[in-house]
Amino acid sequence: MHYSEWLLLVGGIMEDTPLGQVVLIRKENDRDRLKSFTRHEHRIRNEWREYRAGQEKNKISPEKTAEHFEKMFAGMFG
Hints:
Mean pLDDT: 88
Number of domains: 1
Low-confidence stretches: none
Order of helices and strands: HHHHH
């Protein structure tokens, strides 16, 4: 399945579906709403935040990327 097709399918997911609920939990930032979260909802949100923090930590800076390409081309063309 192409990404564009997948995007069309999930783009219309409503809040009343299980996936829609997870998305709402993950993106919630209202402190009052967060206070009323269940343990399960907090777990879902915290796992997502930890996952995203790991992604950010593992990103390569533009400087490192440029350095990598410079070394690669230097090795190719001496």
